[in-house]
Structure formats: C-alpha cells, structure tokens
Task: structure prediction
Amino acid sequence: METLLSLTPLVPLFPLLAFLAIVLVLNPNKRLSAAVAIGAVGLSWLLGWAIFFSSIGAGLGEQPFVVELPWMPTGRRLFVMSVMLDPLGAIMLFMVPFVALLIFIYSVGYHNLGQPNVEPRFSRFFAYISLFAAGMLALVVSGNMLLFFIAWEIMGLCSYLLIGFWFYKPSAANAAKKAFLTTRVGDVLLFVGLVLLYSFTGSLNLYEVLSPENIEFMKESSISVAGLFTLPALPTIALLIFGGAVGKSAQFPLHVWLPDAMEGPTPVSAMIHAATMVAAGVFLVARMLPLFEPIEGSWWLGVVALIGAFTAVFAASIAVAQNDIKRVLAYSTISQLGYMIAALGIGGFIAGVFHMLTHAFFKALLFLGSGSVIHGMEHGVHHVEEHGHGEGHGHVDPQDMWNMGNLRRHMPTTFWTYVVGAFALAGVPLVTAGFWSKDEILAEAFEKWTHKGVVSIPFVVWLLLTVGAALTAFYMGRQLGLVFGGRERTEAARHAHESPRSMTVPLMILALFAIGFGWVNIPKNVPLVGNGWLYTFLAETHINVLHEPYEKVPFVFSVAAFSSILALGGLALGWWLYRDVTGDATVSPFERDPVARAFARIPLVGRPLWLLLENKYYVDEIYGVLVVRPVLALSAFLNSFDDRWIIDPLVDGVGKAARGLSAVGRWIDTYIVDGIVNYIGYILDELARGLRLIQTGRLPNYLAILVAGVLALVGLMLR
Amino acid sequence: MNTLGFPILSAVIFFPLLGVLFIALIPSDRPRTIAQVAFWTAAIDFALSLVVVVNFDATSAAFQFVEARPWITLFGAPVITYKLGVDGISLWLIPLTSLLTAVAVLFSWGSVTHRVKEYYILMLVLCTAMLGVFTALDVFLFYVFWEAVLIPMYFLIGIWGGERRLYATLKFVLYTMAGSALMLATIVYLALGMSGQLGTLTFDVQAWYQVFIPPTVQRWAFLAFALAFAIKVPLFPFHTWLPDAHVEAPTAGSVILAGILLKMGTYGFLRFAMPLFPLATQELAPVIAGLAIVGILYGGAVAFAQRDIKSLIAYSSVSHLGFVMLGLFALNAEGMSGGVLQMVNHGLSTGALFLLVGMIYDRRHTRLMRAYGGLWKVMPVYAAFFLVVALASLGLPGLNGFVGEFLILLGAFQANRWWAVFATFGVVLAAVYMLWLFGNVFFGPVKDPENAHLPDLNRREVLALVPLVALIVVIGVAPNLFLAPIQPSVQALVDRVNSAVMVMR
Result:
C-alpha cells in the first residue's frame, strides 16, 4: 500500500507524456493520437482509483503522504516542490481522471473519427485536452502552492487553447482571450496572496503553512501599505487567495468568461465545467479553509459565503431566460459553483466538497448530453440543407433550443440520460446525487441560522440558495420541455438522430454516477440507507486541517421536504409550460415564451426586466464601458504622450536645440575660430618657408628623419 | 583565479575577430561562404563560452578565469590593465551573447542580401565588444568596450535598417553617448580621487571596491553612472530611443539590441553603480524602483496601443526591463537573483520574438498587425513557436519568465509591499497585449489572400528557434540549474550594499 501511494506523482505524468508525444511525434496519425491520449488518462484513472481505494483507512488525514523535490533557491532558502496526498486529494483522484476518461472517449465520436467530416485538428485536440487533464491532476496532488499555481496556470492556458480551438471563428477567438484574461485577474490576486503567505510563513508547503502557529502569527500581524495605512494580514491574504477562486470558479463579478467558454467544442465545456477548471477554484478554497477560521466564522469567511450565495441566485435567474442549450447549462454551472462556495463560506467543508463531486458527474453528463443533442441537430441541419427541405429558411442554429422539440423520439438514449442529469441538478429527492449534496448544504445553512437567528449570514445563504433551488428546477424543466418535449419546431429537429455509441456509452456511465454517487454520503440518521461514508472519510482531513473535530450536521427532514417540493414543482412547472410552445428561434421571445409573456404583462417594468435577464444583466456591456474602453483609451493616451506629445518631442527638442547650438557653433567656427586658425596658419606658412629646405621629396630622407624621431622618443621613454 | 591555465575569456572575446579576419579574405561575391563562416565563428564561440560555464565554480562568489595584464602604464605603474573575469552575475550573459549572435547570423542568411561582407563583419565585431563589456574588470577597459558596441550597431541600423533608419540610429547613438559622456568624466574623477587612498592611479574595479567613497561623492557618482545605464536599460522615461531603434533595425539588430544591449545597462548597475556606491544605492533605491514600476505599467499600457508588431515588442521590453530593475533594487537576494535570471530570460524570449517577427516580415514585408490574421491555419509550426515564446514572455508558469517574475516579486514584497502590488498588475497587462497580438496575428479567418499561401518555417529558421525555445522550457522547469551559480555572487553583492549602510550609521 505504501508503494501504491508513492506512485501518486505518476498520476499527472501520464497525460503530460501523452501531450508531449502527440505534439512532437504522433500528431499526423489521428487514431494513434486519440488512443495514446485515452490510454494515458486511462492509466491515470486506474492508478488514481487504486490510490484512492488504498487510501481508505490509511490515516492520511493525520499524516498526509508527501514527496519533496528541491526546485529553486530563493535567497538563503531552498524552494521545494512537493506532492501530497490527503483524503481530500484522494477523493479528487476518484473523480477527476474518471470523468476525464469518459470525456476523452466521448470526444472520439464527437469529432467524427473515421468519418469524412472528421475534425482536421483532431490530434491537436487530444494533445490539449491531455495537458488539461495533466494540469488538473497535478493541482490535485500538489503539496505546494507553487506547484498548485503552476498547474492552475497551465489549465488557464489549456482553456485558452481549447475555447479558441476553432480560432477561425472570431467569437471563439474572443471567448478564449476573455477566459484567459478574466481568470488572470483572479490569478494575480491569488499570486499576490501566495507571495504574502510566503513572506509571513517562509513556506508554501500545504502541510506547513496552515499550522495553527502560522495562522495565529498572521492573525496578529498586519501589512503596511505604503506607510499610509495597515491591513490585517490574515483576512487580506485569505481574500486575495479567494480572488483566485472567484476567477477560476466563475463567481460574480468575474463570472463573465464561463458562458462564452462554450465556444469551444462541447467535450471541452464538459471538461471545464465539471472535471477540471471550475472545480479547481472550489478545491482551492477547501484547501485554504483554515485561513478563513471556519470554526469561529470570521467576517472574511462571510464575504465568501455571500459572494457564493449571491452568485447562485444571480446566475440561476439568468439561466431562466437563455435560449442556447449550452448557455443555460453554463449559467447553471456558475450557479452551482455558487452553492459550493457558499457552503464553504458557512464552514461546510464536507458539504461543499460533496457537492463539487456530485456536480462534476451530473454536469459532465448534461454537457456531454447537450453535445449529443447538438451533434444530432447538426446532422438534421446538414440533412435539410442538402435535401432542400424547408422553404428557404436561413441557417438553423443547432444550439438554439427553440429550433428543437420532441427530440425524445429521435434521440432516446440521450433523452433518458439527460433526464437523469436534469433530475440530479434539480435535486429530485431520494434517488439523485444532487439531492443529497444540495440538501447537505441547505441543512448546514439551516442548522447554523437556527442557532444564530435570522439576522445572520447563514440565514441569508439559506434563503438565497433555496430561491436558487427553485429557479434551478424550473429552468431545467423548461429545458427538458423545449428540447425533448412537444412537437418538432423545425425541419432540422425532425431529421435529428441519435449519436454513435462512443458518445452514448459515456452518457450512460455518467448517468449511473449522477444517481449513485449521492449514496456515498447519505446522512447517518436517515433510516436504512444512511451511511455518512464520505463524511467519515473526509472528516479526518478536516480534523487535521482545522485542528478541531467537525460537527456533523444531521439530516433535517423539514429542509429536505421543502427543497423536494421546490425541485419537483419547479421541474413540473417548467416542463408543463414549455412542452407545447410553438414558434422557433426566429420568433420574438415575447410571443413564444410563456414566461416572457407573463413578464410583458407587468406594466412598464415587465419587458425591461425580462430583457435584463435575457441579456445577463448587461454585465458584459458594463465591463465594456467601465473597464475595456478606459483601458484602451488610457493606452492610446499614453502612446500619444510617449510618441507625439511629451517624451519623444522632448528628446527631439533637445536634439533640435543641440542642432541650433551647433549652427551657432559653426558660425563661430567658420568666422572666428577658423579665422584665427587660418591666420595662425598664414603666419606659420610664412615661417615655414624656411623649413621647405628639408622638404626634399625623397623617400630615404624622410625615413631617416622618421628613424631619428623614433630613436629620440625611445630615448626619452627609457630615461 | 584562472583555474584553466589558459586565457579562456580572451579566447571567447576575440575569437569572433578571428572570423572577421577570415571573412575579410573571402571575396565579396561569395556571400554564401561569408555567411557560413560567420555562423561557424559564432557557433564555435558559443562552444567556447560553454567551456566557461562548465568550468565555473558555482559555489564561489569570486571572480573566476581572471586574466590581468598591464595595458597602459604611466610613470612605470600600470594605470589601465587588461583585466577580465567572470562571476555569477555575468556568467550567463556570456553564452547568451554568443548564442544570440549565432542565431541572429543564422537568421540573416535569408534576409541580408546587400553588403553581405560588411554586415557579417560588423555582427562579429559587435559580439566581441559585447563580450568585452560583460567581462572587463577594469573600469576604463569596460568603458572602451561599452563605447565600441555603439559603432557596429550604428552601422547595422544605419545601413540595413528600415525607412527612418537614419533618424533612429542617430537618436540611438546620441542618446547613449550623452549618458556615457557624463560617466566617463565621473570615472576619471573617481580614479583621481581614489589614487590618494590607493597610492596609485588605477582603474581596476576590484581595487576600487576596497575604497570607501564619501557619501556625497557616492550620490553624484551614482547619478552619473545611473544615467548612462538607465538610458541603456532603458528605464522610464529614457526609453523613447528604443521603439525607434527596434522598428528601424534589421531583425538581427533587434535581436541583439533587445537580447544583449539592454542587459549592458542592468549589468552596469550590478557591476559598478551598486557595489561602488552602496550608500547611494540604498538611498536612491526607492526612486529607481519607482521608475521601474512606472516603466512596467507604462510600457505595458503603451504596448497595447501599438499597431506595429515590432514596436509592441519594444514597449514590452520597457515593461520587462522594469521588472528586472525592480528585482535588482529590491536589494535582497530573492529580488536580485530573480533580476539577474530575468536578464537572461528576457534575452531569450524577446530575442526569439524579434526573430519570429523577422521571419514573417521576410515573407510579407509588413509588420502591421492588421495585415495578418488566421495565420495559425497557414503556418502551424510558426504559430506553435510563437505561442510558446509569447507565453514565456507573459510569464506562464512552467516557462522561464515565471521563475524570474516570481523571484522578483518575492524580493519586491520583502522590500516594500506597495511596489509589488503595482508590479503584479504588469503581469496582467503582459497577458493583455501578448494575447491580443497573438489573437490578431493567428486567430480569426485569413483576411488577406496574400497570407493564404505563406510557406511555413524552413529548416534553417526552425534551427535558429529551437535552442532558444529549448532554453525557455529548461529554465522554466529546472531553474535551479541556472540559479545556483548566480546565488553566491548575488548574495555577496546584497551583503555589500546592505552592510555599507551600517558603516554609515
């Protein structure tokens, strides 16, 4: 078992090697590239699961497994890179490579391998996505925040490359840039936080920095800002690090990149939204939780909770008014990440991690399912365009839900697996994984506010998350109704067809986990099935990290019942309202969308309110005015300042002045200095008449004079 | 002392002149032979500089491979010595110089067609002069090499440059000379002043290190030196010669200019201004660090406004060199060793960037960003190289730029946290303009039909890029290899600067 644990550093290494092999050698062969990529992540999966199962009961919570490697000197100290395995990392090793493997397999069919319309840059896709998986796995096993940060940034790079995979589409190119830059704002905050952490503790090793002594030291220290004012060290560092999570896990106000990220191929969306990227932010906060003093509940932990809860509702309300199948899911991801962050923000370490894990399964399922739907729709669109059905319709957008309808008949496997995913996301009681994990968060908030009263952060969190749960169920019901219910609204939908097995089999496997994974942590006080296994497994980490036992929140029946009613009611309402709508994507929302119609009936504010939702609260536009344009203007201004107005003209001015001076000098030279020189010359010339006698014009004479001169000089020097 | 028993530094410095001699003998109507001889000269010189690296004792802070011979004697005493030596601060600059020269020469095979003989002679002379700058341990000798660098560069820009080359080259030379004239006067003044304490007139910098210079003298002398070096770096606001020189210079000129010449400025601070005037260094460090931060942000912001790829990279250099200066003037081991490493990193990545721009310029004869777009599809190999280098330049972890920036910020944070917070925004700016550049050139559809069938990189071009990219990755992954020899010398310098303050108190 010890030997198995010592193989932990190899887990991220397999996909990394696959990346290098494909980029450097294998890329001309598409089939081989895919095989190597899948084989590598398959090895990571096998090893990851072996490590995970052998870590159960291995006491890693008290004594994490650590490997160290010296990396670079920083002044007198030597910086080490380290790999660490604790229960939190081990459970991530269960989820990440497994979901990644399924996404990899799915991608083969998605990119039409073996068919005439195969993606031309197929091998490159598998190279990037392998690096992506390597980055996430390295992040999970890193025992050191610098290695963590490197893996974190490599994922940022991969998201840039993969979102911009179809770089010839301007929308994809822009989305890629936006994703990288937005997350980089968060990354810089994280980086500053880490550097501060290092300067206080002298280490970035996870198993050292978070010791009670260090926390205490930072709590008593302060950071002076330019001698003007001081900031308390611990909250500053904690919130800067949280800034990184806000960027990566797409929390308000840095959430704007994630919806656009769906410009990439769908497997990439699944990768970003489920197994990797966004989970990294939540994982970061979970790792760094001791900085937030979760037991006492510090004010800066409250900031985390409020941002998470606000994001949960904010994004869910946007999802209600979206028409693109993937965009709905994208906002739902932002919203669900809000749940996780909020859970951590009220000190619910296990609830937050649990929801991250279940969400990874059902969100991967939903994204891959939507990819399958789009794939089927594209087939239909293609068919229609080829056979000239449809009376001169323009291009039909295969992602717009209004162009779909009745796909349950054309794509039955996709339909049933999608239903499972939607039910899990909505939190259909007792069976689905989403129910158990979401309930755990709500129960945690409920427990806390019943102790603290209504004027407390847990109450706000509970209230917002409950509203969010209702909205979530509703927009998923709406999506099911629009995509799979009713009649086909376009010719393309009539010709949609089921995806190949390489796509549907991963869907079925994920569907099993979207149900079954919830059962690993059914609270102990639930009759018959209660086990609290994940709690027992993770609580060990928790004790180690927080140095205090974790208080288990029991199953609260009233909370569960209430949220169950919301889930079932929301789903039913959504399905019922949208099942039989008519009007495709060309029709105005106020005519085709029942909810939009209802909004429009409210005088004055109704329509603008709906447009506000549909346009995502205009956050992109606001950033355009507040951030992008000022930056562009400032940059243009500085450029003119540099080149045209101040600095360069000054330099040129000095040059011109010098030239002016030199003109004066030339005049002086010509008429005064030269005059004098010429005059002297004239006099010398007169005097020299006498010397002309030795000017014989014969070379030997000159040589003789030269030698005499040299001899005289040498004599002088030797003297 | 020199452990090799062989004047290896002289060999490295003057080997290129041997090549010059050869080239002078080849008739000018055989440009191919000339180019090949030039390349092999530089390549062998690189191999020689590796001998220095391999035999360098990484645990010592002392000058190594020292050679000293009297050069100019006055009244029987050697006043100016031909004295060379290498320590951890200058170690990596030597192979960097010969490598970039070799790479620049290799690149030029494809793009320099007129006055070929003169061109390669100047490139090799330039190489010798630059190596001299980095190894001279006699202040006067240093000054001679320092000025000697200007001459070949003047001709390289002035003859093989772009349309406004005369303006650019004149500006470059006058700007630099203006700074160094004051330095020369100060050097003479200091030598005379110190001759009392030293008992003899000498320009040996190691002798100068032993002398305590009065605080007021230190301040003025530091300012005089700093002006010369700051112009070279270039430190804001002395930078406007740089974009002009870069835009007008031929590709190889830009590579050398950005890769090596700018480092002469930072090196000057490390070798002369800081150790000779530690009190003034302490006193003026906040000012210089402040200018460095302004440069980081200002250079980054202005880079974003450029339409010409070369001037974008030029302004990015202003930003990056700001980071180097910030690291040096953090006056601690982390910042300074980060700064020293970042000098090398910037040489590699910016050198490579200018090469890459040159390659596309040779194909399309324009450097305007808007002339491109969608090139990824047309030239995938080129795009891949460009991407790696651009990512190194914006400081992606796993590549070299990150290591330097990390150490610099670590150092700056310890010196004064306020500085570093500002500097970190430079990291975001770097991502903004680099991705903007990359997106404009490589993403999107192919807009101009002229771009639709550009040939991808040929083998010679790949060969020129591979060593640079390989080093970018190696430094990023195994920085200790490069940092370890830097450490002792940097630590000695830090101690020297900081302990001098205690003497004053």
